[in-house]
# Entry
Amino acid sequence: MIGRQDEHNLIRRAQAGDGAAISSLIRAHQGGLYAYLLKLSGHAETAEDIVQEAFVRVLKNLERFDTRFRFSTWLYTIAKRLYVNAAQRMKPAYDTDMLSDQRCHSPNPGQLTAERESRECARDVIDFALEGLPEHQRQIVELYHERGWPVPRIARYLEMPQGTVKSHLFRARKRMKCLIQADDHWSRCVDDSLS
# Structure
């Protein structure tokens, strides 16, 4: 794992078009990102495709990256969104004969639409609440909940005591809840999805 200052120097060089810096950035994150996507998808080919697509997307938009933050958080967020989009595209399609046979066992289209809207609402609410967190708390929440990292690993990665990580995680969750409850639109969205 490269240090934060070294990573920022690599990013600045990569933003200036330095091919060696770009290669170093990819090498530094490729293995971890692949393992994360393999865990998410369960398919090596899917993981490889999304890793490649994520790096293409990141490198095309590298000038937009703010070096005050962790490059890995940005990269993993992009990769997860690409995975979610790919998973939705790869859902199986059924022919009408099979659907009519399954009619009594399957939810009706209205239920499916409501469930999809509820999931989308939940994702939007979480994104809204994450945006309201300070960067260090947002990063800890994403590492813990999205990547599934345990507290000791986060503490090592961010070079802070485990108790501090736990404290930030607790405060971040509390702040996210307050942000959602204080916003009429998002609190209604949560209420609707629970009803």
User: Anything to note?
Assistant: The chain has two domains: 1-91, 110-195.
